Each structure stands twice: as structure tokens, then as C-alpha cells.
Predict the structure.
Amino acid sequence: MRARGRRWQQQRIDVAGHRADVPSDEDENEHPELDQPLTDAELADVADTALAQVAEELGERPGMKQMGLVMKAATALAAGKADGSRLSKAVKDRL
């Protein structure tokens, strides 16, 4: 049991399963456009699109009670390019 712990510490495997002591062949900034956060205009478009999707599902314009549904749709549309607080503010401004 003790030897297993030492091997684990020596290899330093990160969450993604890559060994930290082995250099990666991948360039971290291979796609720099994917790392760019959404602009305010793009964020507004995401919020509007999410509102439209939820309105179509519900059959009526969503209100504050449906903010969770709108945020779920907006988060999927933003695909990790927007901070949750910025996204939440954009959605709240439109509800």
C-alpha cells in the first residue's frame, strides 16, 4: 500500500490523466480564438437567443421564475466563453 502511494506522488497525474513529468506535444494556444471571452454584444445575443428558446418551449415569454431555464440555455450557448456572473446579469437585464 505504501509503495503505491509513492508511485502516485512520483508520477503526479493531473485530473485529465496526463503525467506532469512528461512534456505535452500539444500547443496550449493552438486555437487562441477559443480562449477569448465573449464581448458585451455577443453576450447580449446569447441572452436573447436563450430567452427566445425558452419562450418557444414554454409558449410564453419567460419571467424571473424561469430564470434557471434561461440560464441553462444561455450557459450551453456561451460554451464556457463567458463568466457566469456576466451571463446572469445579461439575462436578468432582459427578463
Notes: The helical segments are 2-11, 40-58, 67-78, 84-94. The domain at 36-95 is CATH 1.10.10.410 (Arc Repressor Mutant, subunit A).
